[in-house]
Amino acid sequence: MLPIERRQQIIKWLDKEGSLPISEISTRLHVSEMTVYRDIKPLLEENVISKTSGGISLAPIVNPPSNVCSYCLKELHNRHPIQIITNDSRVEQLCCPHCGLLRYKNIEKEVSQIICRDFLQNSTISAKMAYYLMDTDFNLNCCQPQVLTFGSLKQTEQFQRGFGGIILRFDEAIEEIEKRMNGSKGCSCSHERLN
């Protein structure tokens, strides 16, 4: 059995039984306890499971109120939000492209769609097809580094001529934000983010 298959089995058992000792998981999977610890490490890091006094259990699901960003917990009143729709049809609201791109990176395999608003046109566009402008002189007082989204390269370039910045595509924007965050798991907001 591959590590991913063992992790899936562990999650099934935890979903059915609540919690399990590592020794019991080791016995059921016919692997060493050290292998179980290696298998569950990514699940612990992603907050899918949590350690208990008797072993491990599924982590409690924390849903933010619907009027706050599901990444930074800032109130949703920004004019350029992002929505993530997961494979199980859950919708996450994010305050800005900065939080949307970071959240997408955290749950990429679970994402069915990611949509955003064109900064100038205020129309809905696919975030994967959008152009991203960073480092502009235009300050929206939101999460840093600030990111603006556009549906048209021509309009992005026109805005760039007036307000500066660098133009990036979807994957480049994610990579640039992560690089600038220097390994930090949140944003410039003072709120604690959800996992």
Helices and strands, with pairings:
Blueprint: H1 3-17, E1 19-20, H2 22-29, H3 33-45, E2 49-52, E3 55-58, E4 82-86, E5 91-94, H4 97-107, E6 111-117, E7 124-126, E8 131-134, E9 147-150, H5 153-163, E10 166-168, H6 170-180
Antiparallel strand pairs: 1-3, 2-3, 4-5, 4-6, 6-7, 8-9, 8-10
Helix pairs in contact: 1-3, 2-3, 4-6
Brief account:
By secondary structure, this protein is an alpha+beta fold. The protein has helices at 3-17, 22-29, 33-45, 97-107, 153-163, 170-180; strands at residues 19-20, 49-52, 55-58, 82-86, 91-94, 111-117, 124-126, 131-134, 147-150, 166-168. Residues 3-58 form the HTH deoR-type domain.
What does this protein structure show overall?
With 195 residues, the chain is α+β, with helices and mostly antiparallel strands. It folds into 2 domains: 3-58, Arc Repressor Mutant, subunit A, CATH 1.10.10; 82-180, no CATH class. Helix content is 35%, strand content 21%. It is built from 6 helices and 10 strands. The protein has helices spanning 3-17, 22-29, 33-45, 97-107, 153-163, 170-180, and strands at 19-20, 49-52, 55-58, 82-86, 91-94, 111-117, 124-126, 131-134, 147-150, 166-168. The protein has a 4-stranded antiparallel beta sheet. Strands 1-3-2 form a 3-stranded antiparallel beta sheet. A hairpin with a 6-residue loop joins β6 (111-117) and β7. The relative contact order is 0.12. Mean pLDDT is 85; it is low at 190-195. Residues 3-58 form the HTH deoR-type domain. One of its GO terms (molecular function) is DNA-binding transcription factor activity. It holds the Pfam family HTH_DeoR. This is HTH deoR-type domain-containing protein.
